[in-house]
Amino acid sequence: MSESEEERTLEPGLAAWLERALEDESWRSGLTDAEAERLLGWAMARVGSAPERTGERVRLAMRRIGRAARAPAAEAGELLSPWGLAPPPEWEAWTPGQRLEWTLEALRDWFPDPPSEEPEG
């Protein structure tokens, strides 16, 4: 299989997650195509090998991050608070793209914890 074919071939679980993420317009509303692609790439790198377990957390993170990039500093702070992030003082002067880049860089090491397995009993 050539590299381009490998890139286009996704695991079934990841393909289903990607389809669902793309159907949810809320995370990309107000972002340019390039910004939306950047956010989607960040998210796909975090879904991992078990999208059925981590995918929903990543999709919700995408929504928060996309909304934060378009929001004033106070609202962005609320949206980013689950990660302990506070927008820097220059937030208001930045474009949504700059805000998105700052946020994704701040969250570069974040990966979702899969939900804990409940013992069957």
What does this structure look like?
The protein is mostly helical and 121 residues long. The chain has one domain (11-106). The protein is 60% helix and 0% strand. It contains six helices and no strands. It has helices spanning 3-8, 12-23, 33-47, 51-70, 73-80, 96-106. The longest helix has 20 residues, at 51-70. Residues 1-7 have low confidence and may be disordered.
What is this structure's SSE topology?
Blueprint lengths: L2 H6 L3 H12 L9 H15 L3 H20 L2 H8 L15 H11 L15
Helix pairs in contact: 2-4, 3-4, 4-5, 4-6
Primary descriptors:
121 residues; mainly alpha; globular; disordered N terminus
Summarize this, please?
The protein has 6 helices and no strands. It is an all-alpha fold.
Overall mean pLDDT:
86
Shape: globular
- Cα distance, first to last residue? 44 Å
Total helical segments: 6
Radius of gyration: 16 Å
**Class from secondary-structure proportions:** mainly alpha
Low-confidence residue ranges: 1-7
H and E string: HHHHHH
Question: What percent strand?
Answer: under 5%
Kindly state the percentage of residues in helix. 55-70%
Give the beta-strand count: 0
Q: What is the makeup of the main sheet?
A: none
The multimeric state of the shown protein is single chain
Tally the structural domains.
Answer: 1
